[in-house]
């Protein structure tokens, strides 16, 4: 009887942990562009559309690879990468410690190592971690900071890039980005179609 009493709290803790993990791995929804059709003012609708898309852009699955320094982040708590690594001159690590040394073109479930084709950090000019939706919006629109891309190219990248798509299939119990990649692409296209207006400046989160 004593043994059973000692094991009950452990069993209860394990059950709570299992429920919590299943909830944390659930995909948070994104509202579709049609949900904003009732906003009569075109600019206000555009701002609202980008605000919805920013739920993805600021999510750890995206922002962790858009750091403002040389160190990628990990987990939903956005802790520094362990083992320690550096960005390197091409955003793909340094000699003998390239991103591809550990990160393959797919998730390695047994090793719990995430992976997708072309694993690398976003350039410093596109840092999102610690930025506001308005700041990210202006980065995305600025060819001097977005790699010389047009808005159409930005939309295609977000809607179809395989590394971006990893955010919804991160594996090993990681929390997926909200919605789906197709839903993000639709929001970004609707944002462009309504004038690509940016949210006002605000204090960083």
Major beta sheet, strand line-up: 1-2
Cα distance spanning the termini: 51 Å
* CA radius of gyration: 19 Å
Can you summarize the main beta sheet? 2 strands, antiparallel
The parts where pLDDT drops under 50 for at least 5 residues are 1-25
Q: Could you report the average pLDDT, rounded to the nearest whole number?
A: 89
Helix proportion range: 40-55%
Written as H for each helix and E for each strand, in order along the chain, the element string is HHHEEEEHHHHH
Structural class computed from helices and strand pairing: mainly alpha
Q: Choose one word for the global shape.
A: globular
User: How much β-strand is present in the residues?
Assistant: under 5%
Total helices: the number is 8
The counted number of beta strands is 4
Describe the protein.
The chain has helices spanning 2-24, 42-57, 60-63, 99-102, 133-141, 151-160, 162-165, 181-193; strands spanning 73-74, 79-80, 93-94, 97-98. With 205 residues, it is mainly alpha-helical. It has a two-stranded antiparallel ribbon. A two-stranded antiparallel sheet has the order 3-4. The longest helix has 23 residues, at 2-24. The relative contact order is 0.18. Mean pLDDT is 89; it is low at 1-25.
């Amino acid at each position: 009887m004593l043994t059973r009493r000692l094991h009950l709290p452990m069993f209860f803790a394990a059950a709570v942990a299992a429920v919590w993990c299943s909830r944390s791995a659930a995909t948070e929804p994104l509202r579709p562009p049609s949900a904003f059709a009732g906003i009569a003012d075109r600019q206000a609708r555009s701002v609202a559309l980008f605000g919805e898309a920013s739920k993805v852009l600021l999510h750890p699955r995206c922002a962790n690879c858009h750091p403002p320094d040389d160190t990628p982040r990990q987990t939903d708590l956005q802790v520094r990468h362990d083992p320690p690594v550096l960005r390197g001159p091409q955003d793909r690590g340094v000699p003998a410690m390239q991103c591809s040394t550990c990160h393959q073109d797919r998730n390695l479930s047994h090793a719990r190592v995430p992976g997708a084709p072309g694993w690398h950090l976003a350039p410093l000019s596109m840092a999102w971690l610690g930025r506001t939706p308005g700041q990210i919006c202006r980065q995305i629109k600025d060819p001097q900071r977005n790699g010389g891309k047009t808005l159409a190219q930005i939309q295609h990248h977000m809607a179809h890039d395989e590394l971006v798509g990893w955010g919804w299939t991160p594996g090993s119990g990681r929390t997926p980005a909200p919605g789906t990649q197709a839903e993000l692409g639709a929001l970004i296209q609707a944002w462009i179609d309504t004038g690509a207006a940016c949210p006002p400046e605000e204090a960083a989160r």
